[in-house]
């Protein structure tokens, strides 16, 4: 539970630091003497390089443990967020955000694995929903702190980034006090024992990778396609929505802010509730049902032009993020055990990369549905029917997600322990696995990896003793 709290905080601050750019695009453009469109490349680069981070840090976490890759990841996080606040040129800004994308990409898979691996089965769904909705909470915090820190001092937008680099220091200290997950310690013990019988730990790890690719390549492809659909669902319903409220519905700044805040409250509620229900009704059924409800709510979400749309926004995001609340544990239960961090993180980030053009698709399509322009003080502003576009786009996405979820697999209540992993039997025999588990249980699960370094020698002596027993003379 302590580890879960830490990683909810991490997910929250991950989102906070990501949204610092999107909330200050105008100020950044003015500071770097460029356009807002150019500044948004800072957001695009983060999305593009997140997949690199998920691969690098995911493999490192599966090989060397969750703890130290996570700490290194957060150190980079601090340096790059702080460095962004000191950028003096547009080129420096882009370089910092590209590297920040690598650091950000490595966090999701590690956070999910560390927070959920050791949880009791009955708590998985609820905690998955809480973990995922740290992202929505991070957006709310970023909005609040942007109001309080941007342009309130002579440093303009910079204090928001400086402040954003602070909390990860506390997360690092917190993580230093926590051990590795029991599931990873158990798997590493098996690797060390198998090493004593054959080759190095790294070679054993590579053998596991070959087994995972051979047996699960189709599943990995499916997970990327599923995550593309889910990311299209979140970006398609959220990214252009404030623009629709301002440009099409003519909402003021305060009305837009209130609507966005209420929508995110709906997101946090939905993720928690649906995540919890998925533990009883299953991951796929929960996703399918909440997507059907979300599809039914698209009309009021995009066609109610008064401030009553706030209610529709709450319940639509309840559905969108309700489906998302199931995702962390669903990915964990589907992923091969040896590469759980890598698969969860990389499938999520590749899906994010595929969906990064969703707002561009909606904005470009929206220009095909012009409305009467808004004329204020003789200045004409073009308006477009973004509501119709969002409704059609999201309808297609919901159908895609429902079909893919229906056709896909599910491993509800899957055991994460190494003794339940069929893949590991390709690189270690039943006896090796059984002895490792027996020793860890005998020592209260406190056996370190070093204690198992001579496990093969112990087994050899035990076997030699058994072979000598028939030759002993009876007394």
TrEMBL record:
Domain of life (superkingdom): Eukaryota
Topological relation to the membrane, as annotated: Multi-pass membrane protein
Q: Which residues form the Major facilitator superfamily (MFS) profile domain?
A: 3-412
Protein location? Membrane
Protein's UniProt keywords contain Phosphoprotein: no
- Transmembrane region positions? 39-61, 68-86, 92-113, 125-148, 160-178, 217-235, 255-278, 285-304, 386-407
Give the record's keywords alphabetically.
Membrane, Sugar transport, Transmembrane, Transmembrane helix, Transport
In terms of InterPro entries, this protein maps to: MFS_dom, MFS_sugar_transport-like, MFS_trans_sf
Supply one GO CC term from the record. plasma membrane
Give GO MF terms, alphabetically. Answer: secondary active monocarboxylate transmembrane transporter activity
Which PROSITE patterns does the entry mention?
MFS
Provide the GO biological process annotations: plasma membrane lactate transport
**Protein name, please?**
Sugar transporter family protein
